[in-house]
Amino acid sequence: xxxxxxxxxxxxxxxxxxxxxxxxxxxxxxxxxxxxxxxxxxxxxxxxxxxxxxxxxxxxxxxxxxxxxxxxxxxxxxxxxxxxxxxxxxxxxxxxxxxxxxxxxxxxxxxxxxxxxxxxxxxxxxxxxxxxxxxxxxxxxxxxxxxxxxxxxxxxxxxxxxxxxxxxxxxxxxxxxxxxxxxxxxxxxxxxx
Length: 193
What we know:
By secondary structure, the chain is an alpha+beta fold. Helices cover 24% and strands 23% of the residues. It has one domain (35-192): Glutaredoxin (3-Layer(aba) Sandwich).
C-alpha cells in the first residue's frame, strides 16, 4: 500500500481496454481487508474487436437470461443502461450488489435498466441462482456461458466491471472494482439525463 492507495498494475500487450495501469482509491468505504476487485485469469482468446472505451458505442450482444429469456443490448437503445459483470465467488461483487439493487429499484420507473452479466463460464448455475435470490436481483441476470461477451467484446480483466451506457448507446463510464453508494448514485445520475 502506498499512501493509502491500492495500486494494481497490469502489464499486458496493447489493446487492453482499461489501460496499462489501473489506480484504485482507498478501500475505506468497504469492510476492512475487502479487496476492491477480483482479478481474472488471462484469456487465451484473441479478439479483433476494439476494446470498449468511453465515448464509443457499447459493443452489442445477446445473452440468455436466468429466467429463460433473452436480452439484446441494442434493443434497449433510448434507455439508460448499467451493465455489471459479476460472479458469485467475487467478494467485491457481493459488497456492491445491494447498492446496485437499491439503485435499480429507485430508478426503474425512469426507464433505467441494469443488466447483471454473470461469468457463467467460470461460475456454477446453482451458485448464480442462489446469488440472485440472496440479493433480490429483480433486474435481468444474463448468462455469459462461453465468455464471448466478457472476453471478446468487453475484454474483462477484473470484477466487478460496470459499464454505464447512455440513452444513445454510448459508453459514458467504465468502472473496475466495487462502487460505493455515492459513486453508484452519481454515475447513474449521469446516464439518467
